[in-house]
C-alpha cells in the first residue's frame, strides 16, 4: 500500500471545512489581543474600578484585580480542555466543536453586559474560557484527522493563522475605539463583541461540514466515513487514492478497537504510562508545552503593551500600535511557518530555530533592562530592546507557539490521541494561567531584567532537551509514528520511521476481508 496525498487543495469544499473549523482559534487569539487590551480602555477601567487614583494606598490590590480579570478566562480554558476529553469521543469532534462555540459565546455575552459587576465578570470569564479551552483541543484534533499526511502541518497550522489574525486585529480595534469612541460602556462592549461575528458565521457553516472519517470509522459507520473522506478529497468513493487511504484508517481503527471496548479514560491514561513507546510520546508533548509557556509564551503577549513601555516607548496609543505591529509580525511568520517552513524544514528544526531566536532576544533585553533601562541618552539601545520584542515574536511564531498543537495531535495513535492531547492542552492552559497571573509580579519583584533572565534559562534548557529528545515527524503518516519512539530516548533526534510503503500480506488480507464483510 502506498502512502499518497490527494490534491485536497484543489477541492473548494475541503478548503471551506478547514476554514470553518480553524475559526475555533479566534476565541483564544482575540482574548490575548482584543480583550486583554480592552482592560486598559478608560470606559472599562471606570466600570470595573480599575482607575489608579482609586487605589493609591493599595497598588498590589489593583494589580491583583487586573490580573484576575485578565487570567480567569485562561483558568476556565484549562478545565474546558479536560471536559471536552469525554465529549470528543462521546459526541464526536464536530458536535463538540459546536457546543464549545455556544459555551464561549454565552460567556462572552455575559462579559459584555456584566456592567461593572466584578463577581459576574470573573464568573463569565471562567465560563467563556471553558468553551475557548475546549476549542483548542477539538479544532486541531478535527483538522489533524481530516488532513493528508504530507500537508498535515499546513492544515493544522491554519488554526494558528486564524488565532493570530484576530490577536493582531484586537490591538488595532482597541486603538480605533480609544481614538474615535467616547469613553462609555459602548466603547469596550463593541471591542469585546467583535469575535462573536466570525465565530457565529463559522458556527452556521459548520452544518455543511462532515464528521471526521476517523471518528466515523471508530463508531463503525464505515459507509459514512468513506463518503466523508471522498467529499473532503473531492473524489469518488471508488477512486484508488480514496480506497488506499480509507484502508489505512480502517486498519488502524480495527487494531485500536480490539482492546478499547468499555475502556475508561483513566485506563487509557494508565496505558500511556505503562507502554514505553506511548510514555515517551506523552511526556515529550508535556515537556514541549511546559517549555513553550515558561519561555515567556503567552504571558508576553498578554502584557506586550506594558513591555513596550519598559523598552522605551511612550504613551498608551503608541504602545497599542506597536502591540498591533507585534501581532502582525506573529501572524506573518506563523503564516510562513504554516505554508512553507513546517512541511519544508520540519517540526524539529523550526522548534530549535525558534527557541534560539527567543533566547537571543531575552538575553539582550535582560542586559538592557539591567544596565541602562529607559536612559534618555541611550536611544539606540532602547530601539534595539523594542526590536528584540519583535525578534522574540518571530522565534515564538515559527517554533513553540504552533508546533505543540500539531505535534500533540499527530504523534499519538487514535487509541490514546484524544486522552493524551486533551491532557497536554489542559496543562498548556494551566501553565498559561500561571504565567499570565504571575508575569506582572515577576516584572516587579525581579526588577524586569530578572524575568528576562528566567525566560532565557528556560529557552536554553529547551534547546538541550528538545534537541536530544524530539524526533522529526514531517511527512510521517500517523499510523507510523510509533517507529520514531523505538529504541533509547537519547536517539530520538535521529529517529526515522521504518519503510512504510508496504504492509504485510496478512494485514492486507484482513483489510480486504473486513471490507468485503461490510459491503464496501
From TrEMBL:
Membrane topology, as annotated, equals: Multi-pass membrane protein
Residue ranges spanning the membrane: these are 69-87, 99-120, 126-144, 156-177, 282-304, 324-345, 352-371, 383-407, 419-436, 448-470
Note the superkingdom of the native organism.
Eukaryota
Q: Where does it live in the cell?
A: Membrane
Residue span, Major facilitator superfamily (MFS) profile domain: 17-474
Q: In the UniProt record, which is one GO cellular component term?
A: membrane
List, alphabetically, the SUPFAM superfamilies matched: MFS general substrate transporter
Which keywords does the record carry? Membrane, Signal, Transmembrane, Transmembrane helix, Transport
What the entry lists under PANTHER family is as follows: PLASTIDIC GLUCOSE TRANSPORTER 4, QUINATE TRANSPORTER, PUTATIVE (AFU_ORTHOLOGUE AFUA_1G16230)-RELATED
Family per record: Belongs to the major facilitator superfamily. Sugar transporter (TC 2.A.1.1) family.
Name of the protein: Major facilitator superfamily (MFS) profile domain-containing protein
Amino acid at each position: 500500500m502506498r502512502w499518497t496525498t490527494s490534491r485536497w487543495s484543489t477541492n473548494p469544499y475541503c478548503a471551506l471545512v478547514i476554514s470553518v473549523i480553524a475559526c475555533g482559534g479566534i476565541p483564544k487569539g482575540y482574548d490575548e489581543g482584543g480583550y486583554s487590551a480592552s482592560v486598559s480602555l478608560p470606559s472599562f477601567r471606570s466600570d470595573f474600578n480599575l482607575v489608579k487614583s482609586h487605589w493609591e494606598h493599595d497598588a498590589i490590590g489593583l494589580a491583583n484585580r487586573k490580573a484576575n480579570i485578565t487570567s480567569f478566562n485562561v483558568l476556565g480554558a484549562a478545565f474546558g480542555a479536560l471536559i471536552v476529553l469525554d465529549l470528543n469521543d462521546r459526541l464526536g469532534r464536530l458536535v463538540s466543536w459546536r457546543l464549545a462555540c455556544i459555551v464561549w459565546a454565552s460567556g462572552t455575552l455575559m462579559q459584555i453586559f456584566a456592567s461593572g459587576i466584578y463577581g459576574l465578570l470573573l464568573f463569565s470569564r471562567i465560563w467563556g474560557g471553558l468553551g475557548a479551552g475546549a476549542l483548542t483541543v477539538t479544532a486541531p484534533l478535527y483538522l489533524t484527522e481530516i488532513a493528508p499526511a504530507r500537508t498535515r502541518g499546513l492544515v493544522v497550522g491554519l488554526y494558528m493563522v486564524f488565532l493570530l489574525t484576530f490577536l493582531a486585529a484586537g490591538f488595532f480595534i482597541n486603538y480605533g475605539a480609544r481614538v474615535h469612541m467616547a469613553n462609555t460602556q459602548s466603547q469596550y462592549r463593541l471591542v469585546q463583541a467583535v469575535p462573536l461575528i466570525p465565530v457565529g458565521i463559522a458556527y452556521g457553516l459548520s452544518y455543511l461540514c462532515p464528521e471526521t472519517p476517523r471518528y466515523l470509522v471508530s463508531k463503525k459507520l464505515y459507509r459514512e466515513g468513506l463518503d466523508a473522506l471522498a467529499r473532503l478529497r473531492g473524489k469518488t468513493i471508488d477512486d484508488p487514492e480514496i480506497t488506499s487511504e480509507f484502508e489505512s484508517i480502517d486498519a488502524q481503527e480495527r487494531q485500536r478497537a480490539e482492546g478499547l471496548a468499555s475502556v475508561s479514560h483513566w485506563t487509557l491514561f494508565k496505558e500511556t504510562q505503562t507502554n514505553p513507546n506511548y510514555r515517551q510520546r506523552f511526556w515529550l508533548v508535556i515537556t514541549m508545552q511546559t517549555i513553550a509557556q515558561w519561555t515567556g509564551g503567552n504571558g508576553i503577549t498578554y502584557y506586550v503593551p506594558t513591555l513596550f513601555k519598559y523598552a522605551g516607548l511612550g504613551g498608551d496609543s503608541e504602545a497599542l500600535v506597536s502591540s498591533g505591529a507585534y501581532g502582525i509580525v506573529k501572524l506573518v511568520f506563523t503564516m510562513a511557518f504554516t505554508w512553507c517552513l513546517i512541511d519544508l524544514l520540519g517540526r524539529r528544526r523550526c522548534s530549535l530555530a525558534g527557541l534560539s531566536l527567543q533566547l537571543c532576544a531575552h538575553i539582550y533585553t535582560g542586559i538592557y533592562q539591567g544596565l541602562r533601562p529607559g536612559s534618555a541618552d541611550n536611544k539606540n539601545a532602547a530601539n534595539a530592546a523594542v526590536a528584540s520584542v519583535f525578534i522574540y515574536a518571530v522565534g515564538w511564531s515559527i517554533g513553540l507557539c504552533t508546533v505543540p498543537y500539531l505535534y500533540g495531535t499527530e504523534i499519538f495513535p487514535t487509541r490514546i490521541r484524544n486522552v493524551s492531547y486533551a491532557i497536554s492542552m489542559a496543562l498548556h492552559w494551566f501553565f498559561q494561567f500561571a504565567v499570565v497571573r504571575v508575569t506582572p509580579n515577576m516584572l516587579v519583584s525581579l526588577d524586569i531584567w530578572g524575568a528576562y533572565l528566567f525566560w532565557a534559562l528556560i529557552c536554553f534548557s529547551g534547546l538541550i532537551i528538545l534537541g536530544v529528545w524530539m524526533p522529526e515527524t514531517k511527512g510521517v503518516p500517523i499510523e507510523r509514528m510509533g517507529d520514531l519512539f523505538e529504541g533509547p530516548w537519547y536517539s530520538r533526534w535521529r529517529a526515522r520511521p521504518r519503510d512504510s510503503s508496504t504492509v504485510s500480506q496478512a494485514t492486507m488480507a484482513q483489510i480486504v476481508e473486513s471490507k468485503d464483510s461490510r459491503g464496501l
